[in-house]
Amino acid sequence: MIKLNDKTEARIDEIISKLTLKQKVGQMNQAVLWAGSEEYYIDRIRKGEIGTLICGLPNRSDDRSSEAERRRLLNSLQKAAIEESPCGIPLMFGADVVHSYDVCYPVPLASAASFDTELVEKCYRNIAEETSRDGLNWTFAPVLDLAHDPRWGRVVESGGEDPYLSGSMGAAIVRGFQGQLNSGRDLIACGKHFIGYGAMEGGRDYHNSDISDYFFNNWYTKPFKAAVDAGALTIMSSFNSVAGQPVTSSKKLLRDVLKNKMGFNGFVISDYDAVKQLKNQGVAEDDRDCARLAAIGGVDMEMVDNTYPKYLCELVKSGELDESVIDEAVRRVLRVKFASGLFDNPYRNDYDCDIEAHRADARQLASENVVLLKNNGILPLGENSKVFMTGPFLNERISHVGAWAGHYDLERIATYREAAAETVAKDKVSFSDSVFSETVMNEIPDDCDAVILFLGENMCCTGEAVSVADISVPKDQEELVRRARAKGIPVIGVFNFGRPRALGNVIDMLDAAVYGWHNGTMAAYGMLDVLYGRKNPCGKLPMTILRHIGQLPMYYNSLNTARSVNAYYGEGRSYYDMKTGPLYPFGYGLSYTRFEYSAPICSKTEISTDELECGKTVSVSVDVKNIGDISGKEVIQCYVRDHVGTMQRPVRQLCGFRKVEIAAGDTVSITFDIGMKELGYYGEDGVFAVEKGMFTVYTGENCLSENGIEIRVV
Ligand code: BGC
After folding, report:
1. How far apart (Å, rounded) are the C-alpha atoms in residues 278 and 293?
2. pLDDT confidence band for 210 (50 / 70 / 90)
3. Is the pLDDT of residue 549 over 80?
4. Whose CA is closest to atom 5 on ligand 1?
């Protein structure tokens, strides 16, 4: 929530009173930077026709000349805005800086798998520093959409299936991007896409969503609330509709929910071309109608469609739109421009960034999020193991960066082969570049201890508008696994997918399986660190891994069901033709050491609703001991189950996690405070309340943990 002092609020009033209607509409307009010459933009800025610009990223150049040119251009436009535009209002320059700039960090879904909010915040601080020196001051990220359908290409941009994890990651990204907001090294964050985009039918991008109020309040709004509370200054509305109402024109969603209920007082920007798409969605007749509906709905700034500049003034003059709608939108835009420090510090200057330190952070994150799924003891590889490496990702470079990456230094991204040649003794590793599985298998040396298959998907199969219908491991890769298996040598599968693929067609043929995502510039080093035990794996799944696509949708925090045939998470006999539970559950991930959990204890076993409403909590503590021989990190997870509610409650719901390093033989004690936020929920009436009754708080290594303690709310 933005808080400005009275003097600034008064200044905003003054500016609004001085601007003409057309100039106010100008503040609600986002133009594209690539549509004309510098003079063209300066002319429009002088006339007060542009509030913000969407920029795209400059080409990367070794001498930073194109970056310098970009900075010069943006500063020149800013100068025109400050010195020559009506009331000297600064511009915002936005771009999709999602997870990369000079260095490419893991895709957001992969970052979520680290369960390490501090490290994620640090990496996003790096991204803000790398980016702002080239002139930008705003990014369209983080993505806060819950992702329940791995067919959807944009799961790669999300924080996964759980509202709490997604919100925690979203908040960390917002803190990282925005920093102190006045250092000239920050980016204004934009939480997107509000709301329900990830619930679209069939995993088909831009499709409709139909979400009950119950799921909407308790699942979908939570990540956005977390980002708003962390200070996200802008929010992007989504393309989809929810229950028959396109979000772009939904007063209920944008005004009632986001602005009023959640207390968001920054501004809402529409998604690309989304205002005009109200015609395609069948709620507007023409562009004029689109502009009217979006403005009334609560879109404060229109991204590029140009219907606001064209029609808002005449809509006000004809009485179809109240001028107060315009004033409120402009107030929000100005609020963000003041809160972000742009009035005091509008220009961006060059400065040095410690890129090597940033690469080290990227490498840490690219190993911190690697999920060890299966290990029959072949991992970690000894430095003396003789290893044969092959597979379609062995020489892959660009796909490590994943979807929505830009500006990164492609030549500095190592392939697996290059990283192995650098970090593994020459006589201990051999490779095959062949793509024909038959040829490859003939090349395996007889004295080889293990075969590593680098599998995965091209980054072009993920991201916007690239959903896939089949999420199993591709047939040619399955064949490769089968042939390797037939050699009788241990086979390790390394998965580089931008989504959780259903692994049922290959998993049983592997001796070890490791999920490495699209992990950015340092992906190959991070993975080899894990395979060779230089780094003990500690990533956990932010989304369920299915056996088979037919299990969709499947997520861990589902509601109780009527008969045990459909018991929790598909266990029981949901399907007749296969094992029915997930292949790997949410929160799952192995380590090279083992952890032992004590039974949790709590500060008291009863708490009243009055106490909870006054902010009192119950402390639940658990001891976790590293009973293995090496140090390791564990993500200690805390889940709540509400046994009986007026509404059906999820069988488990993540409400906290802590990632800690535990030395061999050591024990750590972790405490979770369980209060109103953890025990309450939005009921049928849309009111958040806690109900009396029995709850179990589980502390464990994933969502299936049975290590619980009961608390009664009286
Ligand atoms: C995407 C947004 C993105 C925007 C601007 C849209 O197509 O949905 O996520 O921020 O384009 O590039």
Report:
1. 9
2. very high
3. yes
4. 272
Lookup result for tokens 């509404």:
647
Ligand 1 site, residue 133, Cβ cutoff 6 A:
no
- The per-residue pLDDT for range 384-396, each reduced to its tens digit, is 999 999 999 999 9
- pTM given for the model: 0.98
pLDDT of 575 reads 84
Is the C-beta atom of 185 inside 6 A of ligand 1?
Answer: no
For ligand 1, mutation pick of 96, 194, 207 (most atoms within 8 Å of CB): 96
Structure tokens at 703: 């969502």
Q: Span 302-324, mean pLDDT? A: 98
Q: Is 140 in the pocket of ligand 1 (CB under 6 A)?
A: yes
- 711: Cβ–Cβ under 8 A, 6 or more apart, which residues? 602, 605, 606, 607, 618, 620, 674, 694, 695, 696, 697
- pLDDT range class, residue 710, cuts 50, 70, 90: very high
Closest CA to 487 of 454, 430, 442: 442
User: SS3 of 314, please?
Assistant: helix
CA distance 612 to 496: 44
Best residue for ligand 1 mutational test, from 271, 277, 301, 303 (most atoms within 8 Å of Cβ): 271
> Could you report the per-residue pLDDT of 401-419, keeping only the tens digit for each?
999 999 988 989 999 999 9
The mean pLDDT of 464-493, rounded to a whole number, is: 96
Q: Is the CB of 194 under 6 A from ligand 1?
A: no
Question: How many Å apart are CA 566 and CA 32, to the nearest integer?
Answer: 51
Dist. CA 110 → ligand 1 center (Å): 20
Closest C-alpha to ligand 1, atom 6: 272
Atom of ligand 1 nearest to the CA of 140: 10
What is the DSSP secondary-structure string of 130-178? HHHTTT--EE---B------TTSGGGGGS--S-HHHHHHHHHHHHHHHH
